[in-house]
Write a structure and sequence with these properties.
single chain; 396 residues; alpha/beta; Aspartate Aminotransferase, domain 2; 2 domains; 7-stranded mixed sheet; binds pyridoxal-5'-phosphate
């Protein structure tokens, strides 16, 4: 009998969103007259910008005509999109070439697939609280995981430490779930640490477009030495509403070499073996995001999510509650009041004011006692949720 990958038996049940769905369902069944204010969702609520829609329509029409029809696309991405993305980096002073950009179907796919580049005996460091896929993808591969807890004392932005080393280092900035963003000095410390130890940083930049403080790095390649130690994984999901359309990109510098192996060349080999590229239509839609009109339109949408963040931050400020995130990220990470546990606070908000958020404990043990609000909901619901929060917690 075949032996399946037994590491799957080591996975913990991914109960967070399942448990939330169960609790909200039970509440609505018991209270059918109530309406919920969902501040927990990680999906966007605004549609694709018009520039993208137009490009998608044009690309569909191209596929109807023999002369403009596209069959298989290059596995690593269409040259027009790879070049466009390289130019986007150049705008911020980061010089990368088109062949260092790989077009993907999204960050989730890449975060899982990219692990093919590393030996299964290598270890992975995950800064917690964390996006759950980092741990799970490595558990599936049987890797040793080093957990680095972060907390309020370091603003959820821990420094590297000689005591906590690993081969693969996950850094997500702006962070999901905490919304915290590494500044240049802090991120430089991680780059230096990775170079000194021969580690590779997997830099998850899914939320870079939400940074408004321009002193903060959008890309790890803004830091000196990053090209010899980092891979950057990006997504148009939250930037441009592509959660259901699926498009992302990954940057692997030519200088990234370990044990005589060029990781860019390895990834070319991997992609040409394991994919047949992203659809022509979707790549055309993606390229429209980087046009001046596309950029203007995505900024407008991001602006709406940012207004939601402002409303929630004002509510928490009024209540004197500690939080991070919100300003440069679409998530707000708050300390539960009166020492309440994450799930107790979840139940309390659901029962008293019908506001649904995400218990911090679901992102790692050190998230216990914290709670995540997402800013991707509608402005109307966000305002009402904030009003209810102030009314409820202001009484305490
Ligand atoms: N990385 C982080 C930190 C995320 O929060 C998410 C989605 O929520 C992703 C990656 C996945 O993005 P994509 O939709 O591109 O797969």
């Amino acid at each position: 009998m075949i032996t399946p990958n037994m590491h799957y038996a080591d996975l913990k049940d991914s109960y967070l969103f399942f448990h939330i769905a169960q609790k909200t369902k039970a509440y609505l069944e018991a209270n059918p007259e109530k309406r919920l204010y969902r501040m927990g969702i990680g999906d966007v609520s605004l549609p694709l910008p018009d520039a993208v829609i137009q490009a998608l329509h044009e690309a569909v029409n191209d596929q109807a005509i023999k002369e403009s029809f596209h069959g298989y696309m290059p596995e690593c991405g269409a040259p027009f999109l790879r070049k466009t993305i390289a130019n986007y980096y150049a705008l911020r002073g980061v010089e990368i070439s088109a062949d260092e950009v790989f077009v993907s179907s999204g960050a989730s796919d890449e975060l899982g697939d990219i692990l093919d580049l590393f030996d299964r005996g290598s270890s992975a460091l995950v800064i917690e609280p964390a996006y759950p896929a980092y741990v799970d993808a490595n558990v599936m591969a049987g890797r040793t995981i080093v957990h680095l807890a972060s907390g309020k004392e370091n603003g959820f932005l821990p420094e590297p430490s000689e005591e906590v080393k690993a081969d693969i280092l996950y850094i997500c900035s702006p962070n999901n779930p905490t919304g915290a963003v590494f500044n240049r000095k802090q991120l430089q410390a991680w780059v230096d640490f990775a170079n000194e130890n021969g580690s590779v940083i997997l830099f998850d930049a899914a939320y870079e477009a939400f940074i408004e403080d321009e002193t903060l790095p959008h890309s790890i390649f803004e830091l000196e030495g990053a090209k010899t130690c980092a891979i950057e994984i990006c997504s148009l999901s939250k930037t441009a509403g592509f959660t259901g359309t699926r498009l992302g990109y990954t940057v692997i510098p030519q200088q990234l070499v370990r044990n005589g192996m060029n990781l860019n060349a390895m990834w070319v080999r991997n992609r040409t073996t394991k994919t047949n590229g992203v659809s022509y239509i979707i790549q055309k839609g993606g390229a429209a995001v980087f046009t001046p009109e596309g950029q203007r339109q995505i900024r407008e949408n991001i602006g709406i999510y940012k207004s939601n963040a402002k409303v929630l931050m004002e509510a928490l400020d009024k209540l004197g509650i500690w939080y991070c995130g919100g300003k440069n990220a679409p998530y707000i990470w708050m300390k539960c009041p009166d020492g309440m546990g994450s799930w107790d606070f979840f139940d309390y908000l659901l029962k008293e004011i019908q506001v649904v958020g995400t218990p911090g404990e679901g992102f790692g043990a050190c998230g216990e006692g914290y709670f995540r609000f997402s800013t991707f909901g509608s402005p109307e619901d966000t305002k009402e949720a904030a009003r209810r929060l102030v009314e409820l917690l202001g009484k305490k």
